[in-house]
Amino acid sequence: MCGIVGYIGESQAAPVLLDGLSKLEYRGYDSAGIAVYDGEQIQVQKAVGRLKVLSELTHDGATMPGCSGIGHTRWATHGAPSGANAHPHYNQSETIAVVHNGIIENYLKLRKRLEEKGYQFRSDTDTEVVAHLLDRYYKGDPVEAITKIMHRVEGSYALGIIFKEHPGHIYAVRKDSPLIVGHGKDGNLIASDVPAVLKYTRNVYFIQNEEIAVLTGETIAFYNVDGEEIQKGSTTIDWDINAAEKGGYEHFMLKEMYEQPQTVRDTLSPRIKDGSIVIEELGMDEEEIRGIRKIHIVACGSAYHAGVTAKYVFEGMARIPVEVDLASEFRYRNPILMDDELVIVISQSGETADSLAALREAKRKGVKTLGIVNVVGSSIAREADRVMYTWAGPEIAVATTKAYTAQLIAEYLLAVKFAQARGEVTEAEVEGYLKDLQRLPDQIEMLLSNKERIQHFANRYIAAKDVFFVGRGIDYAISLEGSLKLKEISYIHSEAYAAGELKHGTISLIEEGTLVAAVVTQENLYKKTVSNMVELTSRGAFVLAVTNAGNREIEKAADYVVYIPQTNKYFTNSLAIIPLQLFSYYVAVGKGCDVDKPRNLAKSVTVE
Ligand code: M6R
Q1: Which domain-ending residue is among 405, 424, 449?
Q2: Whose CA is nearest to atom 7 of ligand 1?
Q3: Is residue 296 very low, low, confident or very high in pLDDT (cuts 50, 70, 90)?
Q4: Which of 63, 358, 380, 486 could be cross-linked to 327 through a Cys-Cys bond (beta carbons 3.0 to 4.6 Å apart)?
């Protein structure tokens, strides 16, 4: 995710900003920029690529005089990585500069209104609307202008702002995107994450949702959304720099699992407007959607598992045939693709060699293509006819968690959209789907808050030799991902099986005490999977069941049960995967494995 730093004090600001941004590099970014008030004007410098380029451009900040400023590392969301889209962004008269993390969901509407009022935009970003909006509402009091825009902007934001008319201050505000204030000896700082300020201070304030901070070199004041001053206590940070990079979590994987309520929300909410699903980037009207006869989903690894889920969801909900292929197979099997079909390529990195080659194969055959991609401006995002981004932010742990759950959300949205366009669902059903989707972030949070129970269970299986994951339908798709998570980070041999297939060979591997995780969330298949569980326990397996709240019957057939909250049958993957992610994580931690960087694996597989 993007990084924010701001500084005001006795020292030259630019070197402090560059240093702070360097501590946020681990979060991933594609461009960087800083804005400094030099005594006369707000100077901005930006550069695409590594922070080093910006440091060279400014001679490590030396060419930018001034003791107050803001800086940013950008992970592209709206608009490709480019100089124009890099932050900070100005208002028209260059008297206000803004850096932003998060997503302004109603930016298109705001941009249109501002353009009608004569504001000219220089970038494709959602952030620039904030600079122009501030300009529109600024009448001499920055806090008043900030509170006004808070009432108008929808979505998530952490903002660092400087006003030329208030050179002795920097301003910060946040909603659903983190921001802290550091109280230093020779100046005060803002940052999106603790590591950026640790060199200067360990005394920090955590800004809460919809709070505003106003910093001078010596003072820090806080205001609420009504512009009333509020009092806040500071916290002393005692983490070392490594722990701070991980936000206090032991591993990036754990941090990323905990980000899932937010990344699911970020992927979902910009696409639900006034009670309906709006996927502008799909670029297809209802008639075009109705004209699609078949969908091919192509991906690798976890993205493929997300694709297997999509098959069940699309076919069940929208009654459209779906074929799912591993990209490494698809590219060599000379697939039969027709004009009225759609190929969806799913990829976190957007750079996976097989997935990219599969996309090119589909394009060569003239079929419509859509990328579901996390990294903006990546090869798959650029080459697909259309791209729908998952707003999961940078994922650092090799084992994907938050990108996978964001992919599921993108698929659900598409499936509901297709089902609606094809007349396969009623308005009431759509309303129900949207309600269930919007509940997912809180439900994920609830499951994460139960981590101790999973941790306790996982500790018993540190020495396991083999673990099996079984399920039917969507539960089989969940099992595939649960199994991959376990094997990739804990090095325990694991297999996922469609539960009904066990009898056809795999059941011979079950011994006394073998752990089998049975995923049982599809009500119409409960009885079927339960009879497989009975077959397993009678052969000595220890069965862990992951099932829906209320399905107490299962306790008769399982040795240990984890319940997930109630949701629509199509969306259970988003919940059932959480305890399985936690299980894998705690087994791997218990074994002392390098959780974030498992042996032999790369985050992005750019070779065949
Ligand atoms: O970047 P992609 O989504 O295209 O990557 C696909 C797979 O390499 C990836 O999902 C891999 O399986 C992960 N390590 C799973 O955690």
Answers
A1: 449
A2: 301
A3: very high
A4: 358
